[in-house]
Amino acid sequence: MATQAAEQMERTAGQELAVELGNQVAGARKVVKQAAHAAARAQVSRVREATKTTKSGRTREKILRAASDLIVERGNTDFQMSEVAARCNMSKGALYYYFPDRDAMVEEIFTRVVDDFAALQESVAANARSAEEAIKGLIGVFCETMQDGGLFVTAIASEMLRGGMAVTPEIYSRFDRIAKIVTVQIERAQTEGIVRADVDPDISAVTLCGGILSGAARQIYRDPDGIDADAMADALYEIIIDGIGTEASRGRVA
User: Fold this and answer.
1) I want to staple 85 with a disulfide (CB 3.0 to 4.6 A). Which of 42, 95, 221, 244 is the partner?
2) Which residues make Cβ contacts (< 8 Å) with residue 71, sequence separation at least 6?
């Protein structure tokens, strides 16, 4: 009798344990299912957001390309927002969703152009085996870019129109990153004995950049097809070294 009772208790306990395990498994499955649904919803949300962001980015780039084309075609920034909207096949109101006004659009375009130019200058300086090679390379990039024209030249011309043909502080501010690249190479030239130790690298860099930009801009104004980038680069280097170079470096140029 006692044995039967014990067996009955074991069976009851086993049944209860089975029920408990079943409940736990069912609960676990429910949690997993809920987590899976939540993960799926989150993934869908991320995909939608990414798609939205990508679409927004593509539209923004489309707008900037249209505005850039107008700037290059006209050689200035005198375009209307409605013209950009028409080229993008969108309403003027939709255009204002991406840019509050024309100035914001122009600012971003010119910032990108200057950043690209600065990146090219940095690459030239980084790969130069000497300060002399770096400075010649930097001048060469300036002259070649001015000869090619395009957005960079228009950016410079726009700043020139604001302050006249003289190089203004506004231009220095916009192209400060470029001037700093030149500053570093002038400091390097001082350590290599090419530039005099008493020369102020910052002032020399700003003067160098301003001279090239204003000189090339004036040449473009007088004779757009008359720029010889190589000849201009050589002439500018001679002028620079004659002014800030050491006796030894001036002798090499001569």
Assistant:
1) 95
2) 77, 79, 106, 109, 151, 154
Query: Fold identical between 2-98 and 103-253?
Result: no
Residue 172 pLDDT > 70: no
**Which contacts of 34-41 are long-range, i.e. CB under 8 A and separated by 24 or more positions?**
none
Any idea which of 36-40, 141-145, 191-195 has the lowest mean pLDDT? Answer: 36-40
- pLDDT tens for 211-242 read 777 766 666 666 666 667 777 778 778 878 77
pTM: 0.66
Structure confidence at residue 115 as a pLDDT band (50, 70, 90) = confident
> Per CATH, the architecture of 2-98 is what?
Orthogonal Bundle (1.10)
Three-state secondary-structure class, residue 1: coil
The number of beta carbons lying within 10 Å of the beta carbon of residue 88 is 18
User: What is the DSSP code string of 150-189?
Assistant: SHHHHHHHHHHHHH-SS--HHHHHHTHHHHHHHHHHHHHH
Which residue stretches of the chain are H helix?
A: 2-74, 81-87, 92-98, 102-127, 131-148, 151-163, 169-174, 176-191, 201-222, 229-244, 247-253
Q: Which two tokens stand for residue 219?
A: 């040449």
Residue 70 in tokens: 């107008």
Place 169 in a pLDDT band, splitting at 50, 70 and 90: low
DSSP code for 245: B
Question: Domain map of the chain by residue range?
Answer: 2-98, 103-253
- Contact criterion met (CB below 8 Å) for 111 and 158: no
